[in-house]
Structures are given as C-alpha cells and as structure tokens.
Design goal:
Number of helices: 5
Bound molecules: manganese (II) ion
Largest sheet: 6 strands, mixed
Structural class: alpha/beta
Helix content: 10-25%
Radius of gyration: 18 Å
CATH architecture: 4-Layer Sandwich
Number of domains: 1
Length: 302
C-alpha cells in the first residue's frame, strides 16, 4: 500500500436504509457510493463571518456524512498570511483529518507559493496539490484517485500537459476526480453574467479530459455546473464549481453560497458522480438558488 492509501472504513448505513449492513460481506453490494464534500474559495482571514461560512460549508464532513473533503483553493484571503491564521486554519483541517476524513487542498491564486504550510500542515491525511500529482485513497471498498495541480496563471496552452503531469492516466482507480483552481470556458460570474471564453488564462472546454467522474474547480465564485462548451458541444467530463462560501464582493450579492456533496461510485471510465448543492441559509430573495444549468440553455454575452 502506498503511503497515500488508507484502508476503507466500513460503509455506513445511510438514513432510510435498513440496518443489515454488518451482516453483508464487504464486497456486497459491490458499489457503495462514497461521499465527497467539495468546497472552495473560503477566503479565510477577511473576517469572522468567513469562518462561520467555512464551518457551515464543512458541516457534512463534521457530522460524519462525507468521507473526503476537497478544498478547491483560495483557502485564505491573500497570499501573505499571518502565522496565527495559518495555525488556526491548518489546525481545523488537521482536526477534520483526525476525525477520519481525508482532506485535499488545491492551492489557489491567493496561496500558490507563499502560504507557510510546512510549519503547520503536516497531517498525513491532509494532502496538498503543491505540484501536478495524484493521490489515491481507499474508501468503501473502492479506490479513488484525486488528480490536480495548483493554480496556473497561463493555463490555456499548458492545461493538457499539466493534466498529463498529474499521472492520472497511469493510475488505476475505480473513481477519478480532477481537482483544479482555474477558469473554464463557459463559467459565468458577476451580476451581468460575464462568460469566460477560451484564452490564455481560461481552459477550453474541448480540453476538459474524459476519464473523470467529475472535474472539481475553485476560482469561480458563483456555484455552477458546466456540461457543454460555448458551442454547445458536451464536455468530456462534468465540471463543477462550488463557488465561494461567503460573498467576497457586491458582485456576488445575489448568489447563493454553499458547497457540493457528491456521491461517487464505480462505473464507466473514471467512475460516476452524482451531486447536490448544499446552500447555507435561504437564497437571496430576488434570485434563484445556484444557477446550475441556466447558461447552458441560454448563454449570455459579457
Ligand atoms: Mn477566490
């Protein structure tokens, strides 16, 4: 077993199911979904409210509902962070890891190189995508590979080689997830629905690789799911942006904030994922909740 693999915890009996779990062998039923919490852009350090939203977003992990947590980047509000803040945040992640949750973090543009993680972030269950790499964990009788790399400013042309450098293609796993902190073609932000188009700093939809149950990315502060590029061609894998967990500017005033809970299971190439967005609190009065499919049916120009 590699140093980044862990033995599976026994599958939990979910609410609504019967309680015959202990009488079944580990291998039956063959596909027990593993639950993943995906949050991003917590921008911790802005103020106490951001910690409150972080905790709300973490709730599915702290209550034991999810086995894995992925933070999609911009954990902190800026790149030069004081030691007390690093200690507090890394301490929280380590506490989660101590409770049995595997924690993954994609460094975002706010923390690409200067967050002092070496001093505080040493927990073996907290993994950081500090370079293109793939981590494999065992959960629920499945192997789950998480591949990713830290924020790359000029990602447009580099994307395909960065994805290849993670080693995902050489990794055998039942479920594969690609973990990013990038803008991707079709992502929409702001009160006037600015739409990102392919370019130097934006991943083209056609470059989104197949073979992943889902692509999970931070950076875009509005929660959304992309399934097509701007020409209407289906993406090879679904792309999820969890969005920021708290409004970081007035441009986000109508947006619902929260995090995704995904169930991943075997099947197809790279496994399958289903998901649900968990909003904290009520959505803003004049807006729909997370507008997950709207752009795909009627993309607006910036
Ligand atoms: Mn951000």
């Amino acid at each position: 077993m590699s140093p980044t693999s862990y033995q599976a915890a026994p599958p939990r009996v979910k609410e609504g199911e019967d309680s015959r779990g202990p009488l079944r062998s580990q291998a039956y039923p063959p596909a027990v979904a593993v639950r993943v919490l995906f949050l991003s852009d917590t921008h911790l350090g802005f103020g106490e409210g951001f910690f409150d939203s972080f905790e709300k977003a973490l709730a599915p992990a702290t209550t034991g509902e999810t086995d894995l947590v992925l933070h999609g980047g911009d954990l902190f509000y800026r790149s030069r962070i004081p030691a007390w803040l690093a200690e507090r945040v890394y301490g929280r992640l380590s506490d989660l890891a101590d409770s049995g949750v595997d924690v993954f973090w994609v460094p975002g543009n706010h923390e690409r190189s200067s967050a002092p993680r070496g001093l505080f972030l040493t927990h073996p269950r907290v993994r950081v995508f500090d370079r293109p790499r793939t981590f494999v964990v065992e959960r629920g009788g499945m192997t789950i590979a998480l591949s990713g790399f830290p924020f790359a400013p000029r990602v447009g042309r580099a994307f395909t080689s960065l994805v290849a450098a993670t080693g995902h293609a050489e990794t055998r796993a039942d479920v594969k997830l690609l973990c990013l902190h990038q803008s991707i073609e079709g992502a929409t932000v702001g009160p006037f629905d600015f739409v990102f188009r392919p370019g130097e700093e934006v991943v083209s939809g056609r470059d989104v690789p197949a073979g992943f149950a889902a692509v999970l990315s931070g950076h875009i502060h509005r929660c959304q799911v992309l399934r097509k590029d701007l020409s209407g061609r289906p993406l090879a894998s679904p792309v999820l942006f969890a969005g920021s967990t708290e409004r970081t500017s007035s441009a986000e005033r109508w947006e619902t904030k929260g995090a995704f809970v995904l169930d991943v299971e075997r099947g197809g190439d790279g496994g399958r994922a289903t998901w649900e967005f968990r909003a904290h609190g009520a959505p803003p009065a004049e807006e729909d909740a997370c507008r997950v499919t709207r752009w795909a049916s009627s993309p607006r120009r910036p």
